[in-house]
Specification:
The protein is built from three helices and twelve strands. The protein is of the alpha+beta class. The protein is elongated and about 80 Å long.
């Protein structure tokens, strides 16, 4: 059976919307969009602007990256992941900063620094992301080498080994303080792409 098509001849009246209804619809839609954005930021991903050069050349100062929050509900942190985490022992406990570094070693693994090379469980790491910069100890009063990463912690370092306060300075980081995995640079345009 064919459907009937109605052709308007210009004499039909379109129903008028109540201005109050239109305003209510607009604010309802706006509230829905804001709720969706809040849920995405809280449970899915968080944007960050990078203020320092501790991750050069992988991430440059001024780059903007997304850190996603889903992976670590599905799998454990892996060596090589670029993680975002709460600053250990912040100078201002009221406003702890979020730091971004590369995970180098996991709980139970032993880290050693020998003649500028990082060793994990007595194996030298191949670290092309450091640009060949030597890795030196930073704080001999806090961290002694070889260093075994405690249970429930990870060892993190910035890719720019000559300009990064990281686990060499503050020790291993609790896994519970990790809030995401940085995976994508979205600004500036020339840097857009996945992080490795």
């Amino acid at each position: 059976m064919a459907e009937t098509a109605i052709a308007l001849d210009g004499n039909e009246q379109t129903p008028k919307r109540n201005p109050g209804q239109s305003l209510l619809s607009f604010f309802g839609l706006l509230a829905l969009v804001l709720l969706f954005a809040f849920l995405l930021r809280t449970f899915v991903f968080q944007p960050y602007e990078i203020p320092s050069g501790s991750m050069e050349e992988t991430i440059m100062p001024g780059d903007m990256v997304f850190s996603e929050k889903i992976s670590y509900h599905l799998r454990d942190i892996e060596a090589g992941d670029i993680v975002t985490f709460q600053e250990p022992n912040p100078a201002n406990p009221e406003k702890p900063r979020v730091l971004i570094k590369r995970c180098i070693a996991l709980e139970g693994q032993t880290v050693n620094l020998v003649e500028g090379v990082v060793y994990v469980d007595n194996q030298p790491l191949n670290e092309p992301y450091t640009g060949g910069k030597a890795t030196k100890p930073l704080n001999s009063t806090t961290v002694q080498y070889p260093y075994t990463v405690p249970d429930g912690h990870i060892w993190v370092m910035g890719d720019n080994r000559t300009s990064s306060l990281d686990s060499r300075y503050f020790g291993a980081v609790p896994v519970s303080s990790v809030n995401g995995r940085a995976f994508f640079t979205y600004w500036p345009i020339g840097s857009i792409g996945l992080l490795e």
